[in-house]
Design goal:
Elements (H helix, E strand, L loop, with lengths): L6 H10 L4 E2 L10 E2 L5 H7 L2 H21 L6 H13 L3 H17 L3 H12 L5 H14 L2 H14 L5 H17 L3 H17 L3 H18 L2 H17 L3 H17 L3 H18 L2 H17 L3 H18 L2 H17 L3 H18 L2 H17 L3 H17 L3 H17 L3 H18 L2 H17 L3 H17 L3 H14 L4 H12 L6 H14 L5 H17 L6 H18 L5 H10 L5 H16 L14
Antiparallel strand pairs: 1-2
């Protein structure tokens, strides 16, 4: 039977020995006492163990009540002192609840190393499901992925039966990590278990968040239609419970996939919708994320100035809220685009900033991605040995955090550069290694990228039939995941490589550009390539020229190369006129009008008709499945 300790008697004994003194400054205030830590060893000799433990417990309860429960202006230092005393006094609920609150706050503010250390201190005394859940997220970012999975499992095992929300959320988080490691089947099973629990408690918000996560992975696997259907289900749930933040996040994810399909206008409209919601509810972190995503797609379209402006807007928000992890990711994205524009010193400066942040907060995945991107730029600059060194560092980090997708991407990039150096067999071995990983995790986009690079090497080696076979496989993969923007690029490669069937491939590529918002530079280059293959004096020449000029006018606003693209487009139509014997300006004007080249309602359908005639039965994808059909 436990002995009941008289706390006041203990205090009286200590006061009599002058080991404690009153900290009360006014008679009306409740009695408070303080004791310096240097007297702790002396107190242990004065008090028996039960008295000592009772004093600790009473002290931490009093402090918890005053500093935490009744205090609306809590400080971090006070919270940490409560945790320290709670651990000493073996007051589990106080130590864990306060420690978990601080740990979660640190994780949300990218203080992962501090969160990890705090959680370890608590776990050394108490194995509690809440702390295990918090430490797992910190471990995931810091690269301790296996430990994170183990701790999530321990959290599940210790979670009380009635805590269904916590169980379901933990399963959701575990599934996310396991999916990133490539075991998609197991991840889906965990998500389904999570959904079942959320349905039991009728927790629509948790269910919607889980469906959102599932959709992202399913889209990566190539089943875009199913992913979109899941996102729509998630949206419906968020709307039912009036969860604007969840709705905006889901719209953001949908927009990314729709942009990949080539419907950039629709994607941007969705992002703007997401932004509007986030601004209404004051979700500044979400606003920054959406601006970042929009900027990347706009940069891909060629409007780099607008993209940089959006990234700078995103960075301004990130600085305000102190989200250093997002800052590092945004700087990385900016650097990649700036490097592609040729400003290597500025890009490297941004990458150095990003790397420094990633190292400070222990973000292993962010550091690995940075090094991977930097290596590509050094390789393009001819500094091959430096690039390989960075890729090897990046590869080691991806392996450390169990990121097979990052590892496969790294191997793919290394192989491309090694092939350019002439070491074809070594490059092919790396690509085979990359493909093996990709097949295991079902990364359709990664598979297409790797096969495309391999095909390019075979084409350069003169093994045209081998290259064509691989590119046709890439087309099939990209069509499966509705990645129509990338599909245009591969069809273009085929069209320029295959002498016998080039017209058919180029016709399919241009047919796609009429339906998706492919980058304008690529589109005009494609039209020029088809123009050069069309028999001279064919009416298609003039139609191609008129289309090129039309696309410059309709899609080229703000494009830094617009003037050059317009000149190239005019040369096409001028060449078509010359082939018809048109030599004077007056004759050109009459011919232009007679051929209805000023009427897009005529020449666009006519171009479409001619392209479909050229392709005939040679489609490499199902045209009825394309956006806009």
């Amino acid at each position: 039977m436990s002995q009941e300790i008289d706390f006041l008697a203990v205090v009286g004994k200590l006061s009599g020995l002058s080991l404690v003194e009153s900290a009360t400054t006014h008679p009306s205030q409740p009695a408070n006492y303080r004791v310096t830590t240097i007297l702790e060893s002396l107190l242990e000799k004065v008090l028996i163990q039960e008295e000592w433990q009772a004093a600790r417990q009473q002290a931490v309860r009093e402090i918890h009540q005053v500093w935490w429960e009744e205090n609306h202006n809590r400080t971090e230092a006070e919270g940490l002192e409560i945790v320290r005393l709670g651990l000493l006094a073996k007051e589990q609920e106080i130590a864990v609840s306060v420690g978990d609150r601080i740990g979660k706050n640190w994780v949300n503010n990218s203080r992962f190393l501090e969160a990890l250390e705090l959680c370890k201190q608590v776990l050394a005394v108490f194995q509690d499901y809440r702390i295990l859940g918090t430490v797992s997220y910190a471990e995931e970012v810091l690269g301790f992925v296996q430990e994170a999975v183990i701790h999530y499992q321990q959290a599940l095992d210790l979670c009380p039966e009635e805590e269904l929300t916590t169980k379901a959320t933990t399963l959701n988080n575990m599934a996310r990590i396991i999916a990133q490691q490539g075991d998609v089947a197991k991840a889906i099973a965990l998500w389904e278990e999570s959904l079942e629990l959320f349905e039991q408690i009728d927790y629509a918000k948790g269910k919607a968040a889980t469906i959102n996560n599932m959709a992202r992975i399913i889209a990566q696997q190539g089943d875009v239609a199913k992913a979109i259907a899941l996102w729509e289900e998630s949206l419906k749930l968020f709307e039912q419970i009036d969860d604007a933040k969840g709705k905006a996040a889901t719209i953001n994810n949908m927009a990314q996939i729709i942009a990949q399909q080539g419907d950039v206008a629709k994607a941007i409209a969705l992002w703007e919708q997401s932004l509007e919601i986030k601004e209404q509810i004051g979700d500044v972190k979400g606003t920054a994320t959406t601006l970042n995503n929009m900027a990347q797609v706009i940069a891909d379209q060629g409007d780099v100035a607008k993209a940089i402006a959006l990234w700078e807007q995103s960075l301004e928000i990130i600085e305000q809220i102190g989200d250093v992890k997002s800052k590092a990711a945004t700087l990385n994205n900016m650097a990649l685009v700036i490097a592609q524009q040729g400003d290597i010193p500025k890009a490297l400066s941004l990458w150095e900033q990003s790397l420094k942040i990633s190292e400070q907060i222990g973000d292993v995945g962010g550091k690995a991605t940075n090094l991977n991107n930097m290596a590509g730029v050094f390789a393009n600059q001819g500094e091959i040995s430096k690039a390989i060194m960075l890729w090897e560092q990046s590869l080691e980090l991806f392996e450390q955090i169990g990121d097979p997708q990052g590892k496969a991407s790294n191997l793919n990039n290394m192989a491309r550069v090694i092939a350019q150096q002439g070491y074809i067999s070594k490059a092919l071995a790396l690509w085979e290694q990359s493909l093996e990983i990709i097949e295991q995790i079902g990364d359709a986009q990664g598979k297409a990228s790797t096969l495309n690079n391999m095909a390019g090497v075979f084409a350069n080696q003169g093994e045209i039939s081998k290259a064509i076979a691989l590119w046709e496989q890439v087309v099939s993969t990209l069509a499966q995941i509705s990645a129509y923007s990338d599909l245009v690029t591969v069809l273009s490669n085929l069209g320029l490589t295959d002498e016998s069937n080039g017209l058919v491939y180029l016709a399919q590529a241009i047919w796609l550009t009429l339906r998706i918002q492919a980058p304008l530079v690529d589109t005009i280059q494609l039209i020029s390539a088809l123009y050069n293959k069309v028999p001279q004096s064919d009416e298609l020449e003039a139609v191609l020229g008129a289309t090129a000029m039309f696309l410059c006018n309709s899609r080229g606003e703000g494009h830094p190369q617009l003037e050059k693209l317009q000149e190239d487009s005019f040369k096409i139509i001028l060449g078509a006129a010359n082939a018809q014997g048109i030599e004077t300006q007056e004759a050109f004007g009459n011919w232009f009008t007679q051929q209805r080249l000023n009427d897009p309602e005529y020449f666009l359908p006519r171009l479409n008709q001619r392209l479909e005639e050229i392709v005939g039965d040679g489609w490499l994808f199902d045209p009825s499945q394309v956006v806009g059909e």
